[in-house]
Amino acid sequence: MEAIDALLDIDAVLSERERTIRDRARALVDTEVRPRIADWWERGHVPTELLPALGEAGLLGLGIEGHGCPGGSAVEAGLAMQELEAGDSGVRTIVSVQGSLAMTAIARFGDDAQREAWLPRMARGAAIGALALTEPHSGSDPGSMRTTARRDGGDWVLDGAKRWIGLATVADVLVVWARTDEGVQGFLVPADAPGVTATPIEPKLSMRASVQCDVRLDGVRLPREAALPEARGLRAAFTCLDQARYGIAWGAMGAARDALEAVLALVGEREAFGRPLAGFQLTQARLADMAVSLSQGQLLALHLGRTKDARGLRPEQVSLGKLANVRAALAICREARALAGGDGITHAQPAMRHAANLESVRTYEGTDEVHQLVLGHALTGIAAFR
């Protein structure tokens, strides 16, 4: 890691607090994730047992102030996401679903009673949340949402289906978006409420240390106070998605860095034709290209973080980071896999696991095409979604 970090010397432009949070996340990954991730991935195990440790480390709800949450800056949150995804994209996804999606929805759009009921426990890892927006018939077009919420006396009744909902089978609460007579609204739905059914989507070839689910809502009756009072319209849902997308811009660089670090160590040890693989010109050229791409992605993520802390990010800036850095990370992982030869298709090297996971990361929180159109709209002023 030293040789890679020395190229940019990013530590020189990080504050002591930023380095502390990054190092705390890195230490947790080194002790709790790396020794177990191959087994988790093979078994399709969702390591929810990590949540208390993640909460104790102050990594759940980073950037959210009050109600027992750790607070902190966008850069601090991003650095933590990079370290978590260096362990595995599934681990970073667990933290992202909990913090960037569910906790952000409650913190920004809930009332004080809802915040106090859920955020302190979620920040400790004592309760798990999920966000249910995507539907089976349309992943990239939430405007065509079919899930409904209707009033029945003083209650709400929800009916519909959601798909690819992270953590739904292990969650205590679901933030469900549904169409009402007044427009789209967010609701807090206890996962054990009558009429709620969550089913893991299996088998998966990616994100095997996480869980994504189908969710059915059949006549789910909720009290009036289950509605998040400020979660009106899709813009509220997109606010949560943009939090997660920002984290992905950092996280993808963690997966890429881990793949590069591992193969750099391998080629320094393995010999061919009487010399280390690292001593061949073609090997060094490939390593250099990967390091350049990684450095560019890390600088982009850091710039977005500083901008977010200073004045916030526009949607197209978030799309730029997500699109560019996931593409770059995939290319780095694929090249690292190839450079590792036969070992590259085993758990002896992490590159292929990271690349498989990144295919999911590339798809969720907006596909390449969605982000290209967001950027195209920003560049031309013409919306081409329809």
Could you please describe the fold and organization of this structure?
The protein has 386 residues and is an alpha+beta fold. The chain has three domains: 2-128, Butyryl-Coa Dehydrogenase, subunit A, domain 1 (Orthogonal Bundle); 130-232, Butyryl-CoA Dehydrogenase, subunit A, domain 2 (Beta Barrel); 235-380, Up-down Bundle (Butyryl-CoA Dehydrogenase, subunit A, domain 3). It has twelve helices and ten strands. It has helices at residues 2-8, 16-33, 37-43, 51-56, 74-87, 89-109, 112-124, 234-269, 281-311, 315-339, 351-363, 368-380; strands spanning 129-132, 148-152, 155-166, 173-180, 183-190, 196-200, 212-223, 227-232, 271-272, 275-276. Helix 5 (74-87) packs across helix 8, helix 6 (89-109) runs antiparallel to helix 8 (234-269) and helix 10 packs across helix 12 (368-380). The longest helix has 36 residues, at 234-269. The chain starts with a helix and ends in a 6-residue tail after the last helix. The model has no long low-confidence stretch (mean pLDDT 96).
